[in-house]
Structures are given as structure tokens and as C-alpha cells.
Amino acid sequence: MEVHPLLQVQELTKDFGGLRALDRISFTLNQGESLGIIGPNGSGKTTLVNVITGFLRPTGGRVRFRGRTISGMGPHRIARLGLGRTFQMARPFYHLPAYKNLVIPLFSPRVRRLAGGRYGDRDAVAIDLLEEVGFERDSFVPFKPASVLPHGYLKRLELARALAIRPELLILDELFSGLSMAEVSSTVPIIEHLQAQGITLIMIEHRLRELFRIVDRVIVLNFGRKIAEGTPAEVMESEDVKKAYLGSE
Amino acid sequence: MFLGTLVYGIVNSVILALVALGFNLTFGISGIANFAYGALYVLTGYGVWILLNEVGLPLFLAAPAMVVLTAMAGALLYRVVLIRLRGMAISEVIATFGVGLAVLEFFRYLGFIGFEYTLPPLLDGSLSIGPVFLDLQRALIVIVGVTLTGVLWLFTHHTRLGLAFRGIAQDEHTAMCLGIHSDRVAMFSLAFGGGLCALAAVVILPIGTISVDAGYDVLLEALAVCIVGGLGSAVGVIVASFILGLAQTYTAMYMGSHWMMIVTLVAILLILTIRPSGLFGKQKELEERI
């Protein structure tokens, strides 16, 4: 049997009217690897995530997950295959208590299938998950509606919600944005713990120092093109990357 | 006299709530204002009548059969028409209103007009509450209304599909990335709305006659309740039904029944002036409006 990489992105292109937001992007990601995607604002990072997760249809090229073409599938089908994502701006179900936000994904057919046909006590699983991402267990926080939670908790809730569908590939779109230094340093171990569990990661991030501690490999986007790929150290040495970030002299 | 008016006022309120529940459910979940709602109501009425009088089915089969068929009609409306207009609110309204018009006027064209189009009551007889006599059909309406509200609450709060409904209602994108099929949930919302509408028709129509015009009236009543209560709010529907229902009945009693329709219209105008999003609707925050 042929062994496929977990994710193959092949010549992916996305046009918005006359604007080419993604220009023939290709990369592969193996099981258990962690990939960072960086680039200046407007370079196409979030568009790339939206195309991979099915929220946008590509103009050209394709995405394969475990060898199966997923571009053109709806977001709900891609999610059911085990591709979890967070949104850059936290998008919880504001009128539900934090833990109920997780009960919705815990009801998904995927979770039941992985659990061998049983859901278990979803409320308890939800609270465990929240604890895993740093909600205090013995407090009222998990029972408060998402609308009153502070930003730091909402970001963690995003992470927990994506984890609730038991993803094989987790895409984190600027998880650290808007978090304080202390919050970031308490979130990094949570992500390292996920890596230890074998979850494959894609992280879009502007906080490069923290990102480079976590990921094995980085790709750099600028104006929709991939301008560099390599280890964090290699990428930062690249002339193109310096130019993109600092402007040409 | 006062007590009698109160009892009939409550019955009238429950009728309004029953009529509005389905419309509100569909809107609350998928944001679709189903203007074919009145047509579905009348479709159920004539459907049951045909099954009873032309096909010869007993009532206890004809009524549930039409509830299921009307729910399917709602699903079909989404699958065939609305799926292609999704997200364009005005087009959704025009399309559903158009379908509703076509269905209602088709029944008129077929000649379904007259006093023979009535449904037999599901329950015969009457009971007395103190000095007030209430027929069992109206008592049944109250029981169905209260039960249905309870069942709906349990459904949306404690079942898989109910939670998916609430998820889609609150953030469609988030729900989709959790594996929820947004189009299927929207189709279910139309089907559930249609089914609730049919259930309302089956219990309410026996106390009057089935007519094409009832379709327009029901749509207007559902809209009035939802506008006053706040679109998409379940609590709003109940509160608004009681405000409008009691106000209508007392007005009819003490001022004459031709004033009844004015009550609804005045209520709509008042609420739109004071609080355009309705009593329990979500008003846009000031900064969002700028």
C-alpha cells in the first residue's frame, strides 16, 4: 500500500476577482509534523487556511488529505475527516455556556465513531477538555456563557472546540494574537503536549519567537506566493524573507 | 363575564403562539423568513379534508399524515428553491411569498371555497371552569400549545439535532468547522417549521372553516407575534402571543369584534417605533449601527 503524506497542497491558486490571493502554493505535511505559516499582513495566510478547510473553493490546484482529494468538499465534510481549525477572531457560540460549546462537537458522528459507537458523558468530557486548555476546573468559568468570557479564555475555548472533534490535523489561525506574554507562555506547553500526542499542526502566527520554539518547519508567504520554506533558522536567513518583512532597502 | 373573556383570551393567546412557533423556529435557526407559512397552514387544512372526505381515511391517520407531508413540503421548499438563494434575505422573502401565493391561489382556482370545508373536532364535548363553559377542542389547543412549547425547549436544549440547530443559529461558520452540515440543518429547520405549522392547523382549524384567506391571516398573525416578540426569540413569541391574544379578546369583548385587527396593527406600529427589534429581539448595539 502506498503511504501518503497527511496533507498535500498542490499548485493551490485562489483568485478574488482580479486579485490573485494564492499563487500556485505547494507543500506537504507528514503525520506528526508541525508547520508554521508566516508572512506579512495580506499575504494570503488565512485564505490558504480557508481553502484547505473548505470555506473557500480553490480557483486551481488541489488539496489532498491522506491521499484523498478534499478540495471542493464542504467544510463540514472536511471537518468530519479530522481536520480541525480555529478562527483568528474567536467565534464561539456566544449564547451557550463555555462547556456547551464543546458538547456540540462532541455530538458529531466522527467523535462517536472514534469512541466505538458511544458518546459517553459529554458534559464531563467537555469540562475535562476545558481543563486541558487551562480553564480552572473548580470555578464557575466553564459554566459561564461565552459572551462574558475575556479574550484569553475565548482563545482557549477556540482551541478546545477544535480539539473536541479529535482532529488528526489541527490548524491554528493566530492563536496567540491578542494574548498577553503570560497567557502565551502558559499556552505554549498546551500545544507542546498536543504535539507529544501525535497531532499534526499548522500554525499561522505573527509571534515568531514563540512559533519558532514550537514548529519544525516554516513556510513564508508574500503576495500569495510561497517565498521560502525550511527550518526556522534557514528561513530567517533568506534574503527574500528579510525583504518581505523589513521592506527592500 | 370578565372570567369568560380571560379564558377565551388565553385560548386565543395559545392559538397565536401555536401559529407563530413554527415561523419563529425556522427564522431562529436559519434566518429564513418563510412567507409560504400561511400556505403550508392552508395546505394542511385542505389536505386533511381531502384525505377524510375523498380518500376516506380516518381522522387519526389523516391528521398525522398531513403533518408529515407538510413538513416534507417545507423541506422540499428549501431543497428546490431556497438552497439557491441562501443568504439573500430579500430573495428568500420574495421566493417564499411567491410559492405561498401560488399554492393559496391554486386552491382558490380549484374552487375550495365554502362552509363545507371544515374539519371535525378531535375532541367533542365541553368542560366548565367555574361559570365558564369551554369546548374540549379549545382545551386541547391549550394542552397541545403548552406541551409543544415544552417539547421544543427540551429538543433544542438536550438533543443532538437541537444543539446543532442552536449552533447554526449562533455561528454558521463555527458550526460548519465542527462537522455540521449547514444546508441540511437549514432544510430541517424548514421541515420542522412546516410540521409545527401543520400541527397548529390540525388542532386550530376545527374551531372554524378552512379558507384560502386563512392563509394570509395566519401569515399576518405569525408576523405580528414575531415582530412584537422579537424575531427568533422563543420567549418573545410566548410573551407577545399573550399580549396580543389578551388584548385582541378584551378589545373584541368590550369594543366590538371589528376592532380586533386594529389591535395587532397598532401593536406592530408601536413596537416598531419604540423598539424595532421587538421585546426580546437582539437590538443592534450602537457601535454596530455606525
Provide a short characterization of the protein structure.
The complex is a heterodimer of chains A (249) and B (290). With 249 residues, chain A is of the alpha/beta class.
Layout of secondary structure:
The complex is a heterodimer of chains A (249) and B (290).
Chain A (H helix, E strand, L loop, with lengths): L6 E10 L2 E11 L4 E5 L6 H8 L7 E6 L2 E2 L5 H6 L2 E3 L12 H9 L2 H6 L7 H11 L18 H14 L4 E5 L7 H16 L3 E5 L3 H7 L2 E6 L2 E6 L1 H6 L1 H8 L3
Parallel strand pairs in A: 3-8, 3-9, 6-7, 7-8
Antiparallel strand pairs in A: 1-2, 1-4, 4-5, 9-10
Chain B lengths: L1 H29 L6 H19 L3 H23 L7 H22 L15 E4 L2 E4 H23 L1 H11 L1 H5 L5 H23 L7 H18 L4 H22 L4 H15 L11 H4 L1
Antiparallel strand pairs in B: 1-2
| Total of helices of chain B | 12
Q: Give the CATH level 1 class of chain B.
A: Mainly Alpha
- What pair of chains forms the biggest interface? A-B, 29 and 17 residues
The shape of chain B is: globular
CATH 2nd-level architecture of chain B: Orthogonal Bundle
Strand content of chain A: 15-25%
What is the fold-level CATH name, i.e. the topology of chain B? ABC transporter involved in vitamin B12 uptake, BtuC
What is the CATH H-level superfamily of the largest domain in chain A? P-loop containing nucleotide triphosphate hydrolases
Mind describing the biggest β-sheet of chain B? 2 strands, antiparallel
Helix content range of chain B:
over 70%
Count of DSSP H/I helices of chain A: 10
First-residue to last-residue Cα separation of chain B: 52 Å
> Order of strands in the sheet with the most strands of chain B?
1-2
CATH level-two architecture of the largest domain in chain A: 3-Layer(aba) Sandwich
Biggest β-sheet of chain A, characterized? 6 strands, mixed
Name the average pLDDT of chain B. 89
